[in-house]
Amino acid sequence: MRRRHARQQSDGELTYRELAARTGWSHTAIAEYLTGKTLPPTDRLDALVRLLGATPAEQGSLATARDRIEESRRRAPRAPDRMVPRQLPADVASLAGRDDELALLDKLVAAPTAVVVAAISGTAGVGKTALAVHWAHRVADRFDDGQLYVNLRGYDPRVQALSAAKALHGFLDALGVPAARVPADLDAQAALYRSALAGKRILIVLDNARDAEQVRPLLPGTPTTMVLVTSRNQLTSLVGLDSAHPIPLGLLSRDAAGHLLTHRLGAERVAAEPEAAEAIIVACARLPLALSIAAARAQQSGFPLATLATELGTAGRRFGALDAGDAVGEVRAVFSWSYTALTTAAAGLFRLLGLHPGPDITVAAAASLAGLPADGTRRSLTELTRANLLAEYRPGRFTAHDLLRAYAAELSDDTDPEPDRRAATTRLLDHYTHTTHAADALLRPHSDPVDHLMTPPVAGVRPERPTTHAEAMAWLTAEHPVLLAALRQAAGTGFDAHTWRLGRALDTFLDRQGHWQDRVETCRAALLASERLGDPVAQAVAHRFLAGAHTVVNQYADALGHLERALDLYVSAGDAEGEARTHQNLASLWDRQGEPRKALEHSQRTLVLAQAAGHRRAQADALNAVGWCHAQLGEHLGALAYCEQALELLQQLDDRAGEAATWDSLGFAHHHLGQYGRAVECYERTLELTRDLGDLWGEADTLSRLGDTRHALGDPTSGRADWQRALDILTALDHPDAAAVGTKLQLA
């Protein structure tokens, strides 16, 4: 019929794959039907012959022949049944959150053309065995010659890892090979094993493998088999040399973790204490093993979930709460099986990573933490990643979930002397403080210096050295959450000089990117640290920068109090430059409150002080500020005169931030003189600079005024587009100025 169908269609015979695609059956099933190895079920026979163009008479004749064969088989004497291995452990009651991995395994088994090996890897307790066994049960009926299973005990410290020879002996016995036929040589055993599997449809599960060397002799040679391997090791060699399909297993999603807890405890109990349930999920780091143990404790005790959540959230008690009574059911013990397999260098780095505040770390920071060269540190990080004690979730950035970090911290506390731990923390904070300092100098090279309280980094620290504005912004953006965590760590552990320096060095980045609440937090921490240090100059700087953080979010009373205190400290110290900068901050504060005359007084005082000190950068800022105040008072020609002086000086100094602010002032003055075309040019130059600087609020503020000017020019479409862009930025920044821009759009 295939040949006849091909002649009728003037085409080649339909291949097994084409038939599989048209029927939805497997390639293997089609092959066995058409070669006579398997008698198709009635419905499949009918569908297949219709597809090949059978007439109704032919369909009836073939159906009769099929039924006659089936009947004769039923009447024939049955040979003694051979033992078919069914070695899978019991299936899990419910598997949460692994739909993508199950779908990938389904796809792999659908149309094999060679031996399919799937390597499921992940950290301890993430559910690798549960996934493998659950899927194996789901597809067991596809492998009618049986399923083989072995626990290779690759990471079990209680017993030696199972050798490939012992695993082969077990499999050969299950396949009915007499013990007398099993050779002594490992290669010969593997060859006999492959022969015994030839042509059979068998699923093989190799659980808890230590490495590729342990697995390789157990791989079959026939495409009718499939192999699932689970390991804490990434099995890179198996993927690279044996074409294994990697299936990395991560932590459960929040929804999947909730599903697991609900399945174990019941929907009513979880719904009755949703906050406690959420706290349990967070404390267990969405790790299936930890969640299962926590759920078991809640089931057995009957205590409120809040009691368990409190226990899990208490430092030093979490691992005690995650102990099911044996080594397999204790999270700490399960982690230890991976840790004890590490080299000395990797184990030492893993412990020190427990001192890192998180959430992730680079090779450079890890090298400073360890006080070792980057090459050796990279090797240790790679080893930890292959052991799934770390994850390289982005190139060069490594992370571990909270339970592993807590385990590393516990190990360090028990193993490493306190002076060594303190020295490692110092190196880490030095790394982040000095690199942030270098990045800040590129963001605003003409701002007041941050070298007060700066000391050279200690031995072993290799700060990163961004060389361009773009590199500095990229580094600060990537490290933003890490730097906040490092500052909190420094503030909480007595590293006051680091707290002050890091808080000060972060200010420009946090301001330009609109992280204003973070800015308030870091400036407040820096102020408290400076007070503990008893350093009046550091206190003055911290007061001034905290005032700036309050000003930008319209907390004017708080800002005024800090600026007045800063001014007192600078005057007492005889610091004219600091006094000038504080007057400039006061001018900005009064300007934002709609008090241009008060702002002008402070700006003029700034100019006098800066000129007396010969500080050109402060003079330029003051000239622009005086010009802006004149513009606010309606004295626009005078404003242009001051701002043009400021612009010339700023361009000589190559101060792009100051230049951006001055172009904005010039645009405002030209707009109110009716010189709208020139105002647009000034604002567009401001936008170019603010975007280069990464100053989001500055960009939004200028866009708002540019929209005003375009409307005045008779181009309302462009004006609305500018306002909309400004509103989008301010809304994303959650800034109160968004309301005013939104009103413009509504009224336009």
TrEMBL record:
Keyword Heme found: no
UniProt keyword terms in alphabetical order: TPR repeat
TPR repeats: 660-693
SMART domains: HTH_XRE, TPR
Chain spans, region Disordered: 59-82
Keyword field contains GTP-binding: no
Record's protein name: Tetratricopeptide (TPR) repeat protein/transcriptional regulator with XRE-family HTH domain
